[in-house]
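Subject: Sanity check before I submit

Could someone independently write out the structure tokens for this chain? I want to compare against mine line by line before I put it in a report. The sequence has 414 residues.
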Amino acid sequence: MSTSSANSMGSSGGGVAAAAARMDPEAATELARKGVTLLLLDVPQRTVLGIDTQVFSVGPRFKGIKMVPPGPHFVYYCSPSRHGNEFAPTVGFFLTTHPSEVIVRKWHVQEERLVTLSEEEEIRYSEAVKHFEFDDHLGPYNLDSFGDWKQLSSYLSGSVIERLEPIGGEITIALETSWMDRAPQTDMDRRLMEQLREDKFAKNAPTQPEPERRGCYYTTIPASVKHRNISADELTLLNLDRTSLLESVLAKSYQGQEDILLGELQFSFIAFMMGQSLEAFMQWKALVTLLLSCSEAPLHTRTQLFVKFIRVIYYQFKHGFQQAHDSGSSEDKGSSFFLDEAWFSRDIFLYRLSKDFLAVILEAPAVDGDLLAWARKLKTLLETTFGWDLENSVANLIDEDDEFAPVVVEMDGP
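---
Independent answer below. Compare away.
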């Protein structure tokens, strides 16, 4: 979450009145009636606060956001130090909201986070909101960016959130220290971990104990296929094309429901990209690696799943990685809020997997039209945003430490 990219929610309470002025009058009236209000009390000035793809810097009169479309949302924030030059680690949480709902959170000074109130207090504040007592201090949700959020959360249902969110709902890297020490790490994972640990948002942050705290309830994704009663050649083939592993995971962990898997893919991406959770990154990587490692499934057995999957990651790459326009240099292929240039390198796992996966689809003698169209769109996006050459036949770049890399079984003897 970058303060340089944050819009100001300033002295007018919202600071985004211009967005409201551009809003279609009918949409504004409907949202005023049915929209959700997020009442956020006593949030310190200069706190960087986001909802979905919108990021703000809190001003002196800010007390929340109104006219939020009902549905799933992600709220995240990081508070400044007394001098405003450093920030605490990002804290985020998912919400499933309903028409005309009022959600109340209040800043806890000692814990430096937003907390829920007693039921009695929440009812009292909700009534005050419904009587427009806070209206001048609420900034309207910017509908101009709602389309981007819908593309990032199209499979993010209330049941998916309930299935995955941690106890207490809070997602923050500050509570992932013991998990990070156990996490499998490639060179890129280590660089990412150091970036998150050393980032200005995490410096000098108080270490928080984690008794009884659990992370998100992510699905365990096996790194490889393991069978005892097949030959080494057959095992190698199963791990080069992980269609059978995908079928196993869908049946055992998702009750065969593809959309739940896609919902978890979106949940983990949002928690990583906006909530700066390394645990979420590892889950997103595991799911993306599994799906990009399939060649039989997209062409024959799970074509519609892969049309939806490509669409999901297309919008994740489109909205998660901002193209750099400021410098005017053709060298700048892209940048993101959180991630360094390692993401645009061909050393990253995404390059090898995307190149091989797209080749399977684009070079197939017969292929579903929707699948082909989305594969072409994804290829163009990766080439323009990441600056990758996906045409040339270069040797695959495989990190031997990557637990998700293809498993090749060496045969003894001729």
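---
OP: Matches mine. For the report I'm noting this point. The longest helix spans residues 303-320.
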